[in-house]
Amino acid sequence: MAGGDPSRGQHSGPFRTRLTELFGIDHPILGGGLMWLSQPRYVAALVNAGCMGFITPRSFEDRPAFEAALRQCALLTEGRPFGVNLTLSGRSAGNDAVLDWLDAALRCGVRHFETAGRGPGELIRRIHDGGGIVLHKASSIRHALAAERDGADAVALVGMEEGGHPGLNELPSMLLGALAQDRVRVPIAIGGGIGHGRQIAALLAQGLDGAVIGSRFLVSEEVEAHPAYKRHLVECDEHATVAVLRSLGNTWRVLRNATAEQVAALERDGARDYAAYGDLLDGRNTRDRCYREGQWQHGMVSLGPSIAFARRVEPLAEIVATLLAEAVACFDSLDHRIRVKS
Ligand SMILES: Cc1cc2nc3c(=O)[nH]c(=O)nc-3n(C[C@H](O)[C@H](O)[C@H](O)COP(=O)(O)O)c2cc1C
Q: Which PANTHER family does the annotation name (predicted)?
């Protein structure tokens, strides 16, 4: 079923890079895995729009539920390849489960993987043993280089602007991308803060291979979340997020809501272990109260400032089309705006 063959035949799209070749996709855009929200409808929408998406196994109750999601996604993409995100957790036990999810995904025919977290070496080896390809997402060039040495086929560098967990990195995506090109040999995608096609044009113009996008896509119709939460997203500007929990070594960039304010206050007051935060950090609160009930003031709701580019809830394919049109327009206008002296 899903994705035994990474080649989708003829490439069609304005931009062809090492990443589109590697993933067999039309556009150099990856929809990064989204905890709770990378469900089959959303991931299939990404794939059907010519991008790559990744189902997040941690979002499912158990292996059968995850496998059912894989089967549903394969139906929705009509057999086109889609991916799975394997996030290694820094703090909990539970990384044993990652190998089990990999096994389930490979058995279902998935061959495209996004990994994240520390020490992906064994995971990368097992993905390759199963015939898969892997992009490892890192928040520092040091970790990207380690993943490259471990055999990653591509890396994504995510800046401190990214929604979710940008690690302890304090550097922005633009700087990481420019620095990485002199050091990393495999294809490089850049994530964090990307929500407009002109940013995609900028990274392609530098010779980078693609973009990883999460926050900008949250207002897609295909993201299965409450309309009240999406309505709030549309109203957010670039100051709507906050990065907390750096003091625990696990920075988390989230929507600035009541829960985030409580967490920030506890952190300011000296809370220095997870227990001190009670159940404020429990992702099931986010799932139940924000995503299911629309009470966006509650739960730690991963989000980055690129949400400021989202102006309406719309089909994912339209967001992708807009990003591409903006990127193309940016290249087209270069000749008019910049005179290069010979
Ligand atoms: C709601 C949400 C959930 C996320 N969950 C995960 C996850 O489970 N695993 C992961 O590797 N990255 C996760 N991320 C990070 C994204 O995959 C992606 O790297 C990031 O969103 C890119 O930056 P941007 O938000 O500025 O577009 C999440 C991001 C968001 C916004």
A: 2-NITROPROPANE DIOXYGENASE, 2-NITROPROPANE DIOXYGENASE-LIKE PROTEIN
**Ligand 1 proximity of 189 Cβ (cutoff 6 Å):** no
Residues in CB range of 313: below 8 A, 6 or more apart:
219, 220, 221, 227, 230, 231, 234
Q: Where are the domains of the chain?
A: 18-224+310-337, 241-302
Evaluate: CB of 164 within 6 angstroms of ligand 1. Answer: yes
Going by alpha carbons, the residue nearest to atom 1 of ligand 1 is: 302
Is the CB of residue 308 below 6 angstroms from any atom belonging to ligand 1? no
Residue nearest to atom 19 of ligand 1 (CA): 32
Minimum CA distance residue for ligand 1 atom 17: 32
Q: Can you give the pLDDT at residue 14?
A: 96
Residue with tokens 């999460």: 214
Q: Is the CB of 299 under 6 A from ligand 1?
A: no
pLDDT score recorded for residue 339 = 67
CATH code that applies to domain 18-224+310-337 = 3.20.20.70
For residues 82 and 308, give the distance between their C-alpha atoms in angstroms, rounded to a whole number: 28
The CB of 211 under 6 Å from ligand 1? The reply is no
What is the crossing angle of helices 121-129 and 96-107, to 10°?
Answer: 20
Helix (H, G, I), strand (E, B) or coil at 185: coil
Determine if ligand 1 sits within 6 Å of the CB of residue 158: yes
For residue 138, which of 102, 122, 162 has the smallest C-alpha distance?
162
Q: What residues of the chain score a pLDDT lower than 50? A: 1-7
Q: What is the pLDDT of residue 96?
A: 85
| Rounded CA separation 188/166 (Å) | 17
Look at residue 93 in the predicted model and tell me its pLDDT.
55
Output the pLDDT for position 140.
96
